Amino acid sequence: MLRTIVNIAMRHLLGRPRQTLTTLAGVAVSTMVLITTISLTRGLLDSFVETIVDAAPHITLKGEELEPLPVDLISDAARGRRAFVVENIQKEEREEIRNYRRLLDLLDSREFGRDVVAASPYVTSQVMVVHSNRNLPVLLKGVDIAREDEITGIEGKLTSGTIDLFLKTPGALLVGRTVARDLGIELGDEVTVVPASGPPQQCKVAGCFFTGINAVDNSVLSSLKFGQIIERFPANKVSGIALKVRDPLDNKGLASSLEGVTGYKAPTWQEENASVLALFTRIGYIVMSLVGFVGVVSGFGVANILITTIFEKSRDIAIMKSLGFSARSLVMVFVLEGFLVGLSGALAGGILSIGSINLLASFPVETSQGPLTKTGFSMSWNIGYFLLVIGATVVISTVAAFLPSTKAARLEPVEVLRDSSL
């Protein structure tokens, strides 16, 4: 009986090749678009996380002391406690970490040494960089270049110059590619760094770098001592300490421990980029909604071809019921047709999506994808996306076939044969 049902379903589909191929093409194209879209959005997120984990601190000890615990004035009112403000006008203090070498020793201790892979103190300052007749406000970051290389791998991201040249050149700068482009800077050029307060400083470009993170590529690096001079810090103070940890995806507990021990805020890279990660999450929800809507449209296409088939084959259906075909058997015929159309179209769409993903990934065009700059589109290869979309398409097509199949099962043979012209 099953073989007979399969033969009938195939004859129905092959009997109208143009309509069947049109429906298959619609299902295939929708499947291809959905898989490609998911691959693109997920690839962007994976690329962002990979780039941040590779080229940015996993945890940052900032020179911002933790807020003191608030006093509960309501419950303590019965004890006669009061609160009042006296001359609450204070100068805003700069973010700074005092005696940072003591914290570096702490990070190398047995308590944290197993989890903290590298630590790099830094000093940040907003400055104006002047070259020729151009000027640009940028973030200057003074670093210990050897320690910074352990955090960000800056040596491998240099597009010109070397670390040795940076160490040997007085007043040397490593310039991000965006800054170099905007100011027309090349290796060996002399620039003027104008701080917010204090005299201008003459510097020489010892290298240019490109990390792919737009915020980083729009900054310049100097020696830690030069950064302290620009920011007017003494030798024992820095703006913060960047950390690279052993497990960057599970670092919340370590950050909390560091806050408790040091008294300074220690945000993780996830907290620093929470808005971007939340945006990717919302995009993911939108894409999944798109999967559902387009799948429903594909289901309507499958239902349309089956309704037309039932209308044209109503006399054949009546004859089959007269010969003993049960209503359940007829339902199985048309549900099987919907399943075959959905499966064939989804598999074809999966094959097409392989080509579309490869095509987008091979584009040599540099694109600025949100906070990142990449050459070509960041595409994600994951068999789960293929299985998800193909499975959803097949299920929707099969469910869409159920309604017209019940209509076929309810046909009365006597009425159909009486009204038909034999």
- Work out the number of β strands: 13
Evaluate the radius of gyration.
33 Å
The stretches of 5 or more residues where confidence is low (pLDDT under 50) are none
Biggest β-sheet strands, sense, barrel: 6 strands, mixed, barrel
Physical arrangement of strands within the biggest beta sheet = 3-4-9-6-8-7
User: How would you classify the helix and strand content by structural class?
Assistant: alpha+beta
Beta-strand residue percentage: 15-25%
How would you spell out the order of helices and strands? HHEEHEEHEHEHEEHEHEEHHHHHEEHH
Could you tell me how far the N terminus lies from the C terminus, measured between alpha carbons in angstroms? 28 Å
Mean residue pLDDT: 80
Estimate percent helicity: 40-55%
**Looking at the structure, what is the overall shape?**
elongated
Provide the number of structural domains: 2
How many helices? 15
